[in-house]
Amino acid sequence: MNSTKILDAKGLACPMPIVKTKKAMKELETGDVLEIHATDQGAKGDLTAWAKSGGHELLKSDEENEVLKFWIQKG
């Protein structure tokens, strides 16, 4: 999946993946896709809920070698 920007949030505990995601989203245009890499298992629920509440769309999530990957399109 194509992404406009990749955010490395590996090794960060809650709430830092969300804080960094919010900041990165501000730098993107509507329709751009942010790819987030995280290792905190809480990021699954947190990022899903955050995307929905912020008017963004979680396009895909995946797990590879204990790294959670999310693709969120800016709404």
Automatic annotation (TrEMBL):
InterPro entries: TusA-like (IPR001455), TusA-like_sf (IPR036868). Residues 7-31 form the UPF0033 domain. Pfam families: TusA. It comes from the Bacteria. Belongs to the sulfur carrier protein TusA family. This is UPF0033 protein YrkI. It comes from Halobacillus andaensis. The gene is yrkI.
